[in-house]
Design goal:
Layout: E1 2-8, H1 19-26, E2 30-35, H2 41-54, E3 61-65, H3 75-97, E4 102-108, H4 118-127, E5 132-137, H5 142-150, E6 162-165, H6 166-172, E7 180-184, E8 200-206, E9 214-219, H7 220-238, E10 243-249
Parallel strand pairs: 1-4, 1-5, 2-3, 2-4, 6-7
Antiparallel strand pairs: 7-10, 8-9, 8-10
Helix pairs in contact: 3-4
């Protein structure tokens, strides 16, 4: 039986690892580190830093190239095919490095439960008959780091929060009966589709937890254009961007 641990590692600060994450990582026979191309080498460097800090020099660390998702065509179909390709990659890695079973670990950005596909991919491994037992070590999420950085609560008193994606905000608009919306995986500027931007406040953050962390906040109609320009500058400078924001109805 292969024991596969999905370890949430937070959003970019090695100090965000929990003791449970450190202990699980130290017990792993092999640690799998995905490479996502030169543009996102910072993400790999962070995982390497975590391994250097918490693992011995004899630890078996295996880097691999993560399959990429097709950019054109049907989005849902592209995601399913992408997950299939990743599952096949993981299966080969586990068969190679844990042929007699053992403990393997994958370091998951943020937390495996929040807009991450690792758990769905492990279901494919189980369906394929791989003798695997999956455990999850929760991590600090980008939502937690965002609200902490801005020193704000996520929700109003006794009120719900809606967590969605930039794609959904663009296509579905503001959800009924909700005063606060957290938006993840926005390719850029989904908030510009909201009518009457003067009715909203925004708290935005990029590279949360990393040395490059950048924050902006204010009334949406006043900050929208400067935020988009700043975001594009960061993307051009770093070659990639990972951001998240919280929107709230004013008043």
């Amino acid at each position: 039986m292969i024991q596969l641990a999905l370890i949430g590692i937070g959003t970019g600060n090695p100090d965000h690892l929990t003791l449970a994450a450190v202990n699980t990582l130290a017990q792993a026979d092999v640690v799998l580190l995905p490479r996502k191309g030169k543009a996102k080498s910072d993400l790999l460097d962070l995982r390497r830093l975590i391994c250097e800090r918490w693992l011995s020099a004899k630890a078996n660390i295996v880097e691999f190239d993560l399959p990429t998702r097709a950019a054109q065509g049907d989005y849902q179909q592209n995601v399913r095919q992408w997950h299939d390709a990743i599952a096949h990659c993981w299966q080969q890695l586990l068969a190679t490095h844990c042929p007699q079973g053992g403990r393997a670990a994958l370091l998951i950005w943020g937390d495996p439960s929040l807009y991450d596909s690792s758990l769905r991919i492990t279901e494919r491994l189980e369906a394929a008959g791989l003798p695997i037992n999956v455990t999850v070590v929760p991590g600090i999420t980008s939502l937690q780091v965002l609200t902490a950085a801005h020193r704000i609560p996520l929700n109003a008193i006794g009120a719900p929060v809606h967590i969605t994606t930039g794609r959904q905000l663009r296509e579905q608009g503001w959800p009924d009966g909700i005063d606060r919306v957290a938006v993840m995986l926005d390719s850029g500027g989904a908030f510009t589709t909201l009518p009457n931007p003067e009715h909203y406040d925004i708290w935005w953050g990029a590279y949360l937890g990393m040395p490059e962390q950048s924050l902006m906040a204010g009334r949406l109609d006043r900050i929208s254009e400067p935020l988009l320009q700043h975001r594009q500058h960061l993307r051009d400078t770093q070659g990639w961007i990972m951001d998240i924001y919280l929107l709230a109805r004013r008043g």
